């Protein structure tokens, strides 16, 4: 019976796991996460939101609000914030559409200049160039159709997430006591205090994660602004911080936020080098944000070393795409909290940690 309990409650076990056992668990978890991503991605975002909103709901309930009303107010604030994040790119696209006519003329003029240069430099007639482009467009038709299908699927998936995440978040907040009691029942009674500590520190870890993300947006906004100012783009601070905020929307956000400064710089300076400068600035800052700023700012707050952060960002991108690059970091923090309190996982705790606690002890 004791052996069964040991297997059922690994958090209280002093048994060390072999490398092969750990590898088997990792492969199994990756398999489940990949094929169950349609469920786990919105559920993970919901857990993240519920952990963040839990202190707010608790404070409102102490002020006399009912549980349902406190949850409604908290979630409404998140919906308003999300609405603002969606409104910003819509406004940008509207402004860009007003600049479209001169932008289109400038684009046609540039294409014409490039065509003349090719004719003069390589002695390729404009008819041959036109024939080449027509063949390229025809051969890429199937690729364009595939791209449209993927875009429609991504949009429908995002729409589903936007609908289901608030529902999951509200239910998690409403039934939080039941879920906590279930955790207490799963593990032995003597581990109840440890589970309570892990839950409490998990909430704090998520807060630190959000603080780290805000610091990332601030640093990215400053770097964008400095880069655009060096290039000479008008209103560099405005464009720089809009691009920083819209990085919250992976891939699409930076694309939308770059359209307006590219168009404005091209029209203002009548040169293709300024738009290229904007693209280079945003590309360099995005690389720094993904592999330097984000791991440093977030990892230092979660007490996780930078190498593990980069590995988890990459693994999250492989398994869950852009959502995994965000969600796998707090998951790693929770894994470290559990490993810190499990004798059999001390090696994992040392691997994930930044070494500061050991340094302080020594």
What's this, in brief?
The protein has 362 residues and is mainly α. Helices cover 86% and strands 0% of the residues.
The gyration radius over C-alpha positions equals: 26 Å
Number of helices: 16
Helix content: over 70%
- The count of β-strands is 0
| Structural class by sheet pairing and helices | mainly alpha
End-to-end Cα distance, whole Å, is 40 Å
Give the CA-based shape.
elongated
Mean pLDDT: 78
Beta content: under 5%
Query: How can the largest sheet be summarized?
Result: none
Give me the oligomer status.
single chain
Regions with pLDDT < 50 over 5+ consecutive residues? Answer: 1-14, 357-362
The sequence of SSEs as H and E is HHHHHHHHHHHHHHHH
Describe the structure.
This protein has 362 residues and is an all-alpha fold. It is 86% helix and 0% strand. It has 16 helices and no strands. Helix 12 crosses helix 13. It is elongated. Mean pLDDT is 78; it is low at 1-14 and 357-362.
